[in-house]
Amino acid sequence: MALPSQLKPIQHHLRTAQEHEKRDPVVAYYCRLYAMQTGMKLDSKTPECRKFLVKLMDQLEMMKKELSDNESMTQEIVGNAHIENYALKMFLYADSEDRSGRFHKNMIKSFYTSSLLFDVLSVFGELSDENIQHRKYAKWKAAYIHNCLKNGETPQPGPIGMEGEAYDDEFGAEGGGPSEAPHNPPQPQASFHGHPSNQPPASNFSNIQIPPGSHTPANTPAEIPHPEAAQPVKPVPVPRTMPVVDPSLLNNTQEGDVRLTPEDFTRAQKYCKYAGSALQYEDVGTAIQNLQKALKLLTTGKE
User: What are the CA-CA distances from residue 235 to residues 92, 232, 291 (Å)?
Assistant: First the structure.
């Protein structure tokens, strides 16, 4: 069924869901859930939109039954951790390729798809400031690198400044993304190439927060294009920096009369789920840091 024009802003989230149908059904489900919730706000009155959204709801119900034994579906905290870790790993893969000066369609797609998944995180509640920043940076990077390659120019790697907010406005107006998959982002209204001395403006993202324990993952979530679409990129081994374990947390018991609130238990559980999800990607550093946060909270009542 064709997507009504009024629902154009959700087209790329639905495409991402389709791409992950088999490789990660949980990602596919939450992308469709986000699309459905957003679509309801856009237009649930006109017959064509209503018909499309009802069909999407039926699809969600079917997926929910098929995945009923999956913790990411039955526990919101686990689902949140699954999508966030997936989005961050995709972002980190693209960021690592970018900083190493390896520019190709797959890294552009990874940047853009990660930004869509940060959108999807809003089904669990308000986005953190860090994820809002990651989303904005990833969308901008995807368009910037695409346009440089399209114009035969070499992109500047790493965090560099953006010129104004026209890019974000255009994405909002155009429906949140490129018209033909993430490797065709629209042209930003402002370009670096007209900037004085051809130098990028002062960075707004020089202090972008990359999660601890970040490294190029051995199995990036990014979908590798067909061989004819891009040259294979050889993985570059990156030594992992292991965080130091706080000795005071070892063999520790609860300190004195610590009264934990229901919110404390929820936060501790969330840290543990994040640690478990990080281990799925062999990200030991992030797992240790989250477990230490949970242990400190449970033993001291403080973060």
Answer: 14, 9, 29
Distance CA 148, CA 192 (A): 10
Q: How far is CA 110 from CA 165, 226, 273, in A?
A: 22, 15, 24
256 CB burial (10 A radius; 0-12, 13-18, 19+)? exposed
3-state helix, strand, coil split of the chain in percent (to 5) is 60, 0, 40
Mean pLDDT, the chain cut into blocks of 10 residues (303 residues total): 92 96 96 96 94 96 95 93 95 95 95 97 94 95 95 90 39 34 33 31 38 39 39 43 58 69 81 75 77 85 81
- Strand stretches in the chain, DSSP E: none
| Dihedral sign of CA atoms 277, 279, 280, 283 in order | positive
Token pair of 207 as six digits: 């202090």
Separation between Cα atoms, residue 270 and residue 52, nearest integer Å? 35
Residues in the chain: 303
